[in-house]
Each structure stands twice: as C-alpha cells, then as structure tokens.
Amino acid sequence: MTSQLLLQDVSVAYGDFTAVAGISLSLEQGQIGCLLGPSGCGKTTLLRAIAGFEPVSAGDIVLGGQVISAPGILLPPERRRVGMVFQDFALFPHLDVRRNIGFGLAALERTERRARVDDMLALVGLGDYAGAYPHELSGGQQQRVALARALAPGPDILLLDEPFSSLDTELREQLAGEVRELLKRNGVTAILVTHDQHEAFAMADQIALLRGGRLAQVDTPYNLYHNPATEFVAEFIGQGSIIEVSVNEAGELNDGLGALDMVHRDWRAGERLRLLVRPDDIEYDELSQLHLPVTNRAFRGANYLYELRLPDGQRVPCLTPSHVDTAPGLSLPVRFNLQHVVVFKSGVETSGVETSGVETSGAGTSSGEPPVPENPTA
Ligand SMILES: Nc1ncnc2c1ncn2[C@@H]1O[C@H](COP(=O)(O)OP(=O)(O)OP(=O)(O)O)[C@@H](O)[C@H]1O
C-alpha cells in the first residue's frame, strides 16, 4: 500500500535554528496520525511544514504521490489539497453555518455547492443549524462546523491543530472519539497536533512522540504505553514511576517486591535495574506478605489511586477498587505484578534516540498528571 502522506528525513529551520530534524513518518489513506509532545518540541512547526506555511531545509514531504516540499520546492498552501482545523476554529462570525461551510467551494457551480454543503451538514449532524451564526452555537458545534468546512473541498489530508484545546476537559475526550469515528467512517486521512495524550489516544492510530525536535518514538497508542522505547516516553505517556531495584539470579527483586519474568531475562544477578511501574502493576492482595505504607491517595470514583512507599523510600502508584479504603499513614497489602513490567538498564536510555538540545521547558520530565495530588495530611 502506498502512503497518502510521507515525510522522509524532514528538517525545518528558522534561520540558523533547526526546530525539527530527521523526521520520517508515513500515513496510509484513512489513517489518523498524531504529533504529540511537550511544549516547544516542534509539533506546530511540522504541521505548518505539511500545510506549506514553512519550507523544509532537508528531506521531503510527499502527499498523494506528489512531492509538495523539499529543499527548493514549496507548493503553496492553497495548491495543496490540505484541510485545516484550528485551535480557535477560526469561523467567520458574520457568516451563518451554511456559508461558513461553503466558503472554500467558490469554484463549484451554485447547485453543486449547495448539495456539497448539505452533505457536510449531514455528515457533522448540523442539518438543523444551517442558518445559525457561530456565536449561537456551543463549542462542540462550532468545532463540527470547522470540521465540515475543512472537509468540504475533499482534501487529501486533514490537519487538526490542537482542535479540542478550547473546549472543556470532559468534552474533549468524548469529542475526540466522535471526530475519530466521523473521519474513519469517511476514510479521511488526518494528522492531529496535541500535547494531551488522552486526546491522542482517543483519536490516533499512530502517534509520533517528539522531543526536542526529534522523534522519540512512532507507534500505536498501545505500544507507546506498554512498550515505551525510552524512559522519556515512559514518563510522558501514562502514569507511573520509575524505580531502581536490584535483582538476583532467580529474578527476585530486593525487599520482597516480587520476581521478574525469567523468559525475557536480559539482566545479570546483582544488576541495578530501573523498572517502569504503572498503577495497575501493583495489585491489592489482602493475603500478601508485602505491606507498604500509604503516603497519598486520590479518590477516582470507581477506584483509588494510591501512592505507596517502598522500604528504601521510593514511591510507587497503585490502583485499587474504591472499596479498598486505607488512609495515608496506614499500610496496604500488595503484590507486584511483574509479568509485563518494562525494564530499563540503570542509567541507560534504551534506544538510540538523539536529542537536538533545542528543547525548552517541560521536556524530559513527565507532563502527565503526578501520581496523586499532594495530601496535606500525609
Ligand atoms: N517563527 C519562529 N521563529 C523562530 N523560532 C520558532 C518559530 N516558531 C517556533 N519556533 C521555535 O521552534 C521550536 C518548536 O516550536 P513549535 O511551535 O513547533 O513547538 P510546539 O511543539 O508546537 O509547541 P507548543 O505545544 O507550545 O505549541 C521552539 O523552540 C520554538 O521556540
């Protein structure tokens, strides 16, 4: 299968400053990709390069089989078959929904244009709002108008720049799921830019996680979460702690924390390892001999997210059903479930990812939620 969008070793520079470098990505027709990463990692720069607003300083971008960007080649944005949805939707306030959606269809004959807009209104479920003005619509409805407007000319790819960030947090994930369904139903190829991993998970087939202008990992949401290539990826995606442990010949960890799977053994006895511990890797087990003091906890409705202290002082998260009700200061009997735990060698990043040194704040640390909020009584 040929790629609908192909980025080959793409770099983009602002003057002497290389903002992104060595980016290779490919999306099949109908696939949804995501550029994810901390602030300043280069997501917008890449999206703008795909849209044709920034030239590439190296590599090339191929859309629908045509080279649209390469050093010395820059097909202008209006000649790229690219649809864009912006953070603030950028609707025309003085035009009603019908005319907003029909804006990019001037080349079509009147009845054809009307039919196309009707199709788009039906697609996004806004048939009853054709005569409404943007200010009369909810945020979610405005977002659907922006989507319909971007899709109306039948672009080869849809670019979504933080499309949910001006909406309520609760709405975001729901809308991301709905937009995904709509794009999938219509076989639309799309790229989403976000710094919110929940949005990325809810929408994308494939996520490119960027760090300091470089690719940290390109993978499915499942693999990014379960098989992070580096500690940076592990910390950026999902919740969890990385703890230092030592392991003996039988795979047993210090302090009775459990045993590693011997099948995938690639450690030496006595070696210090760094383990990625996700909240669901530590299970409540009232028969367990291992009791760990609770340092913090957060009530999540159906469950509690605990923070527990290991004998050597390191902290780990633990998810339990919410009827397991143990106050900070008391101890929780738990069992480490280490079958699928991710092991990093101490002090070594496990993949050859380079960092360009152009990273700004937030990079290299987790931008996800902390394991649990500070608890003043702890
Ligand atoms: N027009 C510009 N001129 C010079 N440097 C720029 C320009 N635009 C962006 N940069 C720099 O390029 C790097 C990447 O910026 P970019 O906006 O692509 O990051 P981002 O991942 O989209 O960040 P955010 O999530 O904060 O929007 C940053 O270091 C930024 O300061």
- Hetero groups: adenosine-5'-triphosphate
Q: The biggest beta sheet, please?
A: 6 strands, mixed
CATH class of the largest domain: Alpha Beta
H and E string: EEEHEEEEHHHEHEHEEHHEEEEEEEE
**Number of structural domains:** 2
The value of Rg in angstroms is: 24 Å
Strand content: 25-35%
The spatial strand order of the largest sheet comes to 7-8-9-3-10-11
Q: What characteristic shape results from the CA principal axes? A: globular
CATH A-level architecture of the largest domain:
3-Layer(aba) Sandwich
Organism: Parahaliea mediterranea
GO biological process, one term: quaternary ammonium group transport
Keywords: ATP-binding, Cell inner membrane, Cell membrane, Ion transport, Iron, Iron transport, Membrane, Nucleotide-binding, Translocase, Transport
GO molecular function: ABC-type ferric iron transporter activity; ATP binding; ATP hydrolysis activity
